[in-house]
Design brief:
With 245 residues, the chain is an alpha+beta fold. It contains 5 helices and 10 strands, in the order H-E-H-E-E-E-E-H-H-E-H-E-E-E-E.
């Protein structure tokens, strides 16, 4: 995964060898399938003198996922997810948002803890994150949210302050502000140790969106949160038929 994504920056012609183009399933709706899609993407991005910075990199079985900073003529925060078979990437998802901040707590979208720990709690934390989405975020349940997220939650969303109260307010429009969130479907949960990435579908300010949320756990509670929110384009604009999720 590192080699492939760094190939965007370095122009390494062999970077695409990481991908099994006969099996590759592309879920970015703005990118064509197969060899032509990868080549066109690299060619387009190379004109921007791109820079790729890995902030966090994780592994979960056949999946590798990363939290990155991209400079493609403008700065963007991104999550990249790849599924591998026999050492080659066969499926790809991503979620990219223009970099903004600092947020009201003075935090950036990509700073914060990076150290992976508690590998023996990977499955427990995955279960906790799944429950958080299904029982707290999707129904916007204040009690469930505050039972699972620390009151002092460290927040990296560019529109939110620290704390569980600010996150709940965004789910319910309980307080004035620039962000209104609604979660409708949980599609995927990936985990390594104290970090869990949840891939969800929902709405930002009533706009159909893909929501990627990275949570860091300590002793069974969510203590830090990063995320990207990307508008899902209308079906008529998709360049492949695989869907965002």
């Amino acid at each position: 995964m590192r080699r492939f994504l760094k190939g965007i920056e370095t122009g390494d012609a062999m970077a695409a060898a990481v991908v099994n183009e006969d099996k590759y399933i592309q879920h970015n709706p703005q990118t064509h399938e197969g060899r032509e899609g990868i080549a066109a993407l690299f060619a387009r991005l190379s004109r921007t003198s791109p820079k790729v910075t890995f902030c966090r990199v994780f592994e979960d079985g056949d999946y590798a996922f990363a939290h990155n900073l991209y400079d493609f003529s403008s700065l963007r925060a991104a999550f990249e997810v790849f599924r591998f078979e026999d050492g080659q990437a066969v499926e790809h998802w991503d979620n990219i948002q223009p970099l903004r901040g600092p947020n009201p707590a003075g935090r950036g979208m990509l700073d914060g803890e990076t150290a992976i720990s508690d590998l023996d709690r990977t499955e427990a934390n995955r279960s906790l994150a799944r429950d958080f989405l299904l029982r707290a975020l999707i129904p916007a349940d204040e009690g469930q949210l505050k039972a699972r997220a620390a009151a002092t939650l460290v927040q990296h969303n560019p529109d939110l302050s620290d704390g569980a109260d600010a996150l709940y307010a965004a789910l319910t429009d309980a307080a004035p502000g620039p962000l209104s969130l609604s979660y409708t479907h949980l599609h995927r949960v990936l985990a390594e140790g104290n970090f869990v990435l949840c891939v969800s579908e929902g709405y930002r300010d009533s706009v159909h969106s893909s929501l990627y949320d990275l949570f860091r756990f300590e002793t069974g509670r969510i203590v830090e949160h990063w995320g990207t929110i990307e508008t899902i384009p209308p079906r008529s604009e998709w360049k492949n038929d695989n869907g965002k999720f």
